[in-house]
Design goal:
Phenol Hydroxylase P2 Protein; four-stranded antiparallel beta sheet; alpha+beta
Length: 98
């Protein structure tokens, strides 16, 4: 049984090493969140409810090297929701209009 709110957010990444690390980082940086990960060969669609974050330090841990968030922008095809990108994180979120 799903507790989905219908407010799906998340990135669509071109496949590769950075996308794989980002998926691992999403799972680590968002404890308790459930992600729907769809592998479409050339790209990966990742969705969850309401919001999620990827931290630069987690990406560095997953990749075993220094990482700048702009590297994530290069493989980001599109996304669902809104986006907040800083040098330390990228956050995908859904904000209802009242």
């Amino acid at each position: 049984m799903s507790s989905s709110t219908g407010n799906k957010v998340g990135p669509v990444f071109m496949t590769g090493e950075i996308a794989d690390a980002a998926i691992e980082a999403l799972e680590e940086d968002n404890p308790g969140k459930t992600f729907d990960i769809q592998d479409h060969d050339a790209y990966m669609r990742i969705q969850t409810d309401d919001d999620c974050i990827i931290r630069r330090e987690t990406m560095e841990k997953m990749l075993g090297r220094n990482f700048v968030m702009q590297e994530l922008e290069v493989i980001l095809s599109t996304f669902a929701g809104r986006i907040d990108l800083t040098s330390d994180h990228v956050r995908f979120f859904f904000k209802k209009k009242l």
